Amino acid sequence: MLLIGGHAQAQTIYRVEGPDGRITFSDRPQATTNQATTTSMGHKAMGASAPGIAALPYELRQVVSKFPVTLYTTNNCSACDSGRGLLGQRGIPFAEKTVTTAEDAAALQRISGEVAMPFLTIGGQQIKGFSDSEWTLFLDAAGYPKVSLLPANYRNLPAAPLVTVQAPAPTANTESRPTQRTAPLTAPSQDAAANPAGIKF
Predict the structure, then answer these.
(1) What torsion do the CA atoms of 111, 115, 120, 121 make, to the nearest 10 degrees?
(2) What is the CATH number of the domain that holds 95?
C-alpha cells in the first residue's frame, strides 16, 4: 500500500559560510550577518502562492497545494527528459531544479541520500530514477488527474539551480557615513591679530 504524507512540505536546506571560511549545512535558516553568508539550497515547493496556481481548476489546485511536485534534473540526461515529458503530457504543474555544480550535487546528496537523477518529490515522497509506471502510481495516489486539466496558456516556472547563493548583508565598512560639513566662513574676530591663521579647536 502506498501512503503519501498528508501535508508534507518541501525541505529547504541552508548553506552557511562562517567568517573563518567553514561551511555548515542546516535545515533552519540563520540570520545573515556581516560574519556569515547564508545560501538557500532548498527545494522551494510550488505551493498555492506560486504564479499561475490560482488560475488552475479547483481539483488540480487542491492537489498541488497538498502534494507539490519537484523534479531534479541535470544536463545530457535522457531519463530526465523522459520524466519531464511524462509530467508535461499528464499536465502536472511542477518546479524543476537543475543540478549542475558541485554545490548542487552536495545539496541533492543531503536531500535524497545520493546523487542520481532524475529525482522526483511528490509532497513528502521521494522517487529516485525514472520509471513511467512508478511515477504514474505515485501521481495517482496523490490524487493528480489522469488527463491534463491545465489551462491552454499555463506554463511552469523556468528551471532554476538547486543552490542559489544569497548576497551577503552589507558590512559595517560599507555603511554610509555622515557627510562632513565645512564650517561657514565668519568675519575675522578681534583676536585675529593674535591668531593670524584663524585656527579653531
Answers:
(1) -10
(2) 3.40.30.10
